[in-house]
Design brief:
Elements lengths: L3 E5 L4 H13 L4 E6 L10 H6 L3 E4 L5 H5 L6 E4 L15 H21 L2 E7 L5 H5 L3 E3 L4 E3 L8 E2 L2 E2 L11 H20 L3 E6 L1 E3 L11 H11 L3 E4 L8 E6 H12 L8 E5 L6 E3 H12 L5 E4 L9 E2 L4 H7 L7 H14 L1 H4 L5
Helix pairs in contact: 4-6, 7-9, 7-11, 9-11
Length: 355
């Protein structure tokens, strides 16, 4: 493992958990995180980082001057983002574009200046909405299920692969991340930057401050624990939309393998998620939450579909699995049970933070 690393968005769910996981791997590594603490609940991670002897810098990647005085590093892991797919839809997209695109530019420049490798966490939301929703599916008992379409490039029953066509709208969030990916490729080509890109699906696990538009697994579990209502939104309001999940610790296991070969990084792009085996619908998630928490809460139905929503998304991780001999090991049940234990153990802290 590299002995000097910088993690942006380091007080957020992904950044803080990765920083702590790397600390477990090495008691001597110099780990610095930077975060603007914009997201509510991120401040709860500061004591965890301090206890692990991880240096925290209160700064904003949109401001180059906030980055100039940071300690030296050999690897930058860019976890900072405005993660909501709905950001900019009903208001100006300037904020999401500044955070996700301008912020990435500043991080790329910093990595170039320091001669450091660059690991970029992108998103499955780079794939266009219309093309995904045009894939034929059937309405099964508890979820929507893909059928046919084997002739579509980048699609199989294993999910969406990296070759899936990128033409079409995807949301300001997805566009900002795709634009960042293109810039990473230019820095690799023009500046000889060592970089790798992971297009992540739904990342989840303890310490995620779940909201309606991001962190849905934690949101679902927490609402059951606290006895608060939920709503199935879109696609008839039945809750049959499907996503695959990836526990943050499974992502960490992949990053460890990738970092071992960072001297050979050339801007490769990988789809990273739980795949078919670690996927579920909201309806299936509800049943699991009821079983694990022993509680039943009211769930309303809102049939109209938001144009930014997707009926099914599952990551085909064949490329990254073959390259790094990696597969996620945590099941859906294990993920939900672990989040449940965390929420129960921290009810007082979380009751006013989780939606």
């Amino acid at each position: 493992m590299t002995e000097k690393m910088l993690i942006t968005g380091g007080a957020g769910f992904v950044g803080s958990n990765l920083a702590l996981a790397f600390r477990r791997e090495s008691s001597t590594a110099q780990i610095t995180v930077i975060d603007n603490l914009k997201r509510r609940g991120s401040e709860l991670n500061l004591p965890r980082l301090k206890q692990a002897n991880i240096a925290f810098v209160h700064g904003d990647i949109r401001c180059p001057e906030d980055l100039q005085g940071l300690p030296d590093f050999e690897l930058l892991i860019d976890c900072s983002a405005e993660p909501s797919v709905h950001a900019g839809a009903l208001e100006s997209p300037r904020s999401v574009l500044n955070t996700n695109l301008l912020g990435t530019i500043n991080c790329l420049e910093l990595s170039q200046q320091r001669g450091a490798a660059f690991l970029f966490l992108s998103t499955s939301r780079v794939y266009p909405l219309t093309r995904l929703n045009q894939l034929a599916c059937c309405d099964a008992e508890t979820r929507f299920v893909w059928q046919g379409n084997e002739s579509v490039v980048g699609f199989s029953q294993n999910g969406i692969a990296e070759e899936f066509p990128l033409e079409g709208p995807r949301s300001f969030y997805g566009a900002s991340k795709l634009a960042s990916e293109l810039l990473v490729a230019e820095y690799v080509f023009n500046k000889n930057l060592k970089a790798v890109i992971n297009r992540c699906g739904i990342l989840t696990g303890p310490w995620q401050m779940g909201k309606v538009d991001q962190g849905v697994i934690t949101l679902w579990v927490a609402r059951h624990v606290f006895g608060r209502p939920l709503t199935y939104i879109g696609y008839g309001g039945t809750g049959k939309q499907v996503r695959d999940l990836l526990h943050i610790e499974d992502l960490f296991e992949l990053l460890k393998k990738q970092i071992q070969h960072r001297d050979r990084w050339g801007g490769e792009v990988y789809n990273v998620g739980g795949g078919v085996d670690v996927s579920l619908s909201l309806l299936e998630l509800t049943a699991l939450c009821r079983e694990i928490t022993g509680k039943t809460i009211p769930i309303a139905s809102a049939p109209p579909t938001n144009p930014l929503d997707i009926r099914i998304y599952i990551s085909d991780c064949d490329r990254v699995s073959k390259k790094f001999e990696w597969r996620p090991t945590r099941t859906v049940r294990q993920v939900v049970e672990e989040i449940h234990r965390w929420v129960v153990d921290h009810q007082v802290q979380l009751s006013s933070v989780l939606e």
